[in-house]
Automatic annotation (TrEMBL):
The gene is mqnB. GO terms for cellular component: cytosol. Keywords: Hydrolase, Menaquinone biosynthesis. Residues 32-202 form the Nucleoside phosphorylase domain. This is Futalosine hydrolase. HAMAP family: MqnB (MF_00991). It catalyses: futalosine + H2O = dehypoxanthine futalosine + hypoxanthine. It comes from Streptomyces caeruleatus. Its EC number is 3.2.2.26. It is an enzyme of class 3 (hydrolase).
Amino acid sequence: MTTSAVRVLVATAVPAERDAVARALDLPGVDVIAAGVGPALAAASTATALTRAALAGTPYGLAVSTGIAGGFAPHAPVGSLVVADEITAADLGAETPDGFLPVTELGFGTVTHRPPETLVRDVVSATGAHPGAVLTVSTVTGTAARAAELRARHPRALAEAMEGFGVAEAAAAHGTPVLELRAISNPVGPRDRAAWRIGDALAALTEAFGKLAPVLESWQPHDR
Ligand SMILES: O=C(O)c1cccc(C(=O)CC[C@H]2O[C@@H](n3cnc4c(=O)[nH]cnc43)[C@H](O)[C@@H]2O)c1
């Protein structure tokens, strides 16, 4: 028996990232959208796309959050790739005199989604991406102190970006597996926007998705 490829929704934040991915991924059944910046808009856009496809009788079997990201030095240098084995909302919770409490410790919701292990392994093999935790933040880190605080709370964190958890929440609501792949454009730390290597990171993203095409074409949800 032959199995057909699952439909894949790839969500970037901005059009430049969408175009970098689309340059390498021209496959039937793969849609690449610019879903907006930040977890809320990413979740809304992703949920809308997933719902539309489901109502049309052509549901997606995988949602991918991707784009550029900040990397935690020295683990994820500029120009490298990171694939999330854990997508964690790093600032969803409450500040207390004793430190940060995630919403889960307040008795609500979830702060982590885990992509399928086999898919993460396949992405590592195909692209050379480093596997680790990718944090989702609503505020880009701008100081060394905040970077150190995040790493202390999440010792496995390799990168931070602003959309992964939103895409993952939307995917989870549809029972759809999720993946997050990031190309590092800047170190997480003191703000120096002029030093962001956006062009290099977008080129790395295009190269990665070129290598990923056969992985996405052959992946099946039961491989989870
Ligand atoms: O100005 C441009 O040409 C341009 C091209 C592509 C992308 C951008 C963005 O500004 C994307 C914003 C997007 O990037 C992620 N990101 C990148 N670095 C970090 C970081 O250090 N901390 C958190 N997020 C980061 C994030 O997902 C943003 O949505 C501009």
